[in-house]
Sequence to fold (297 residues):
Amino acid sequence: MILKVEQNEGVRIDKYLAEKTEISRENITKMIKDDFIFVNNKKVKSSYKVELNDLIEIKEGYIKPITVKAKKMELDIVYEDEYLMVINKPSGLVVHPGNGNYDNTLVNGLMYYTNNLSDIGEEFRPGIVHRLDKDTSGLMLVAKDNKTHELLSDDFKNKRIYREYIALVDGVIQTQKATIDAPIKRSKDNFEKMAVASGGKKAITHLEVLKKYPKNTLIKLVLETGRTHQIRVHLAYIGYPIHNDPVYNNKKSDEFGQFLHSRYIKFIHPITNKVLEFEEDVPKEFSRYLKTLDEQN
Fold:
């Protein structure tokens, strides 16, 4: 593909091409670095500002087609428009293919449901702006085009998307509110686990007690950062691991997994600028167990 600059735009080439093509700005930056984009037959940097009559050549073959198989499944779609979806993910469902599971993930279901998904980033993550752990249930956003994906990613990065989680932990938390400020990095003992350790990335979790039981506490959590397994790692670190967590709780767990639910989300729609907010109750297994605790209390 060859594009001719017909006006003296004076804008960066990565921004210019993101507006003129269907390629994301992130992928354009990678393509420039990997010699898939030239200006007047010369290499340029992403910061290059296009000029009148520039000939921009975009070579084919860089962006691979998505090879994930579509699979019919029940999706709990809380909201949908032409730009994005809000999904209520069940516990037990992996978000995207990987680690030997390539056919039974949320992405497989999304691809069966629609052909309109962003293709920014990794090949196996169409539409996925952020993720929830396999056994974490609740609300998450899905982008249907690259522009929406980039804007939502920027909103997450700059903390413009507000989310609340609800969790049941083992042990009775004595304080009403607390903030956990402890860095997280990959565990040196188990690559599949994260751990609080010096030299890790900054991680901050705010919690508030909702209800106390004889041996458990129901809490609300708000993340100030978004590290892998952050809530699970932080709560285990302070001695109140999430109930039924198969990884960070030493007690035996069943197949439902951790009692952690993304309950509430509020954000400004990146295209329409409307304020959207959604709330979803915990899964029936979670609710049923809380009812059992209430009856025993």
Summary: The longest helix spans residues 284-296. DSSP finds six helices and 14 strands in the chain. The chain has a mean pLDDT of 90. The first strand starts at residue 2 and ends at 4.
